[in-house]
Amino acid sequence: MDPSPRFFSWDEIKSYSSRAPERWLVIDRKVYDISRFHKRHPGGSRVISHYAGQDATDPFTAFHLDKNLVRTYLKPLLIGELAADQPSFEPNKNKELVEDFRELRATVEKMGLLNSNHLFFLLSLLHILLLDVSAWLNVWYFGTSLVPFLITALLLGTVQAQAGWLQHDFGHLSVFGKSKWNHWIHKFVIGHLKGAPASWWNHWHFQHHAKPNCFRKDPDLNMHPLLFALGKILSVELGIKKKKFMPYNHQHKYFFLLGPPALVPFYLQWYVFYFVVQRKNWVDLAWMVTFYLRFFITYSFLLDLKSLLGLFLLLRIIESHWFVWVTQMNHIPMAIDYDKNMDWLSMQLQATCNVNQSLFNDWFTGHLNFQIEHHLFPTMPRHNYWKVTPLVKSICEKHGIQYQSKPLLTAFADVVCSLKESGQLWLDAYLHK
Q1: Dihedral, CA atoms, 186, 188, 189, 190, nearest 10 degrees?
Q2: Backbone dihedral region for residue 317 (phi beyond 0: left; psi -120 to 50: alpha; all else: beta)
Q3: What's the whole-number mean pLDDT along residues 102-130?
Q4: Distance between CA atoms of residues 227 and 123, nearest Å
Q5: Is residue 1's pLDDT more than 90?
């Protein structure tokens, strides 16, 4: 006979958080012990640990395609369930809001909005390959004078940015119905077209989605406090503690030196190699090497070594500007704090905002102008974001949650304005508290 099931309260479960030796989480009222499993979790040990001591039903639903398959791996981890008198999620969460969002999720599935148009992604890949070939032909035909050289650099920078958005689609499993197909092509796009490892992206980016703008859980905030003071709350906390790693009251100025131009060429360029070598991920390293071999061999027929290295640095700088402005415009101006264990909808809306839709904005940002919809439904194909927008706005209006959407240039300006504001808050706290 099976042993009698164990029943738990939320007070018991929350003591098994990511800071405890043992880690538990809840999915659909079932309690799982992930103390050992988190190190073998395919999505990374940290992303699942971020929900230790909490209800993980909504992120579990959001991130996994074949939930029945995943549940077979969860069975050995099952240790019990919530007691009958316990709510299905933490008592501090809004019951009606959580249930409304889960109903919205069911509606989205019934509408087929999680199904992709393969032709859309094929055309996206073809336009990237066309730009890549055009960049080489431009120098081959027009020569290596300044103007053709700069045009080729701009074309290659565009290739890198657009390939970045496309690998993002495959990384989120939003193209094919089977995870392994997405993983295979993800390695090709991010490895061969960009020279970066898929394993690094998975490790980094899924944490961001699981707990966006949550300090010590979202790795996109790792620049705080070493380089920048981010968010109103964290900046004041830093000032009160009299910590000063940088002159944060000037961070809105030095952001233009340490942010957009420097992130990719002077940090990520070497860090991704360190990441794969440290973790001995030789498959990702092999894919990365094919990118560098292809680039340097094909352009060595047209450029001397100095010009070749200059072209590579210039395309990385263009890519870096593009990447930083687009990825930060949706998050840096929003609320940044420690994890408050909010419900899925409230957490994502507090940490994200949109940029108004247009054909250019959709292309330029890889549809990340629909950041709210993307964060709520990370496996949704990007060509369907606009279809779910009215439903998301409706649930936000019903529950009094602010849904922000801005013009593109306003969103860029808000990055700088938010850095200036948080820098001043730090200075005031540093001097007077």
Answers
A1: 80
A2: alpha
A3: 97
A4: 39
A5: no
Beta strand 30-33 pairing with 78-82: antiparallel
157 CB burial (10 A radius; 0-12, 13-18, 19+): buried
DSSP codes of every residue in 348-394: HHHH--EE---HHHHHHHTTGGGHHHHHHSTTS-GGGHHHHHHHHHH
Amino acid residing at 394: S
| pLDDT for 396 | 97
For residue 270 the two structure tokens come to 């070497």
In this structure, are residues 47 and 210 in contact, taking their beta carbons and an 8 Å threshold?
Answer: yes
Q: Which of 325, 346, 340, 322 is nearest to 395 (CA)?
A: 346
Locus of tokens 């940088």: 246
Strands 7-8 and 78-82: parallel
pLDDT digits (tens, 9 = 90+) for 158-214: 999 999 999 999 999 999 999 999 999 999 999 999 999 999 999 999 999 999 999
Query: pLDDT tens digits, residue range 304-324?
Result: 999 999 999 999 999 999 999
Tens digit of pLDDT for each residue in 261-309?
999 999 999 999 999 999 999 999 999 999 999 999 999 999 999 999 9
How far is it, in rounded angstroms, from Cα 430 to Cα 176? 51
Strand partners, 174: none
Note whether 167 and 188 are within 8 A (CB).
no
Would you say 374 and 382 are in contact if contact means Cβ atoms under 8 Å apart? yes
Q: Closest Cα partner for 330 from 349, 346, 347? A: 349
d(CA 211, CA 190): 24
Question: What pTM does this model have?
Answer: 0.94
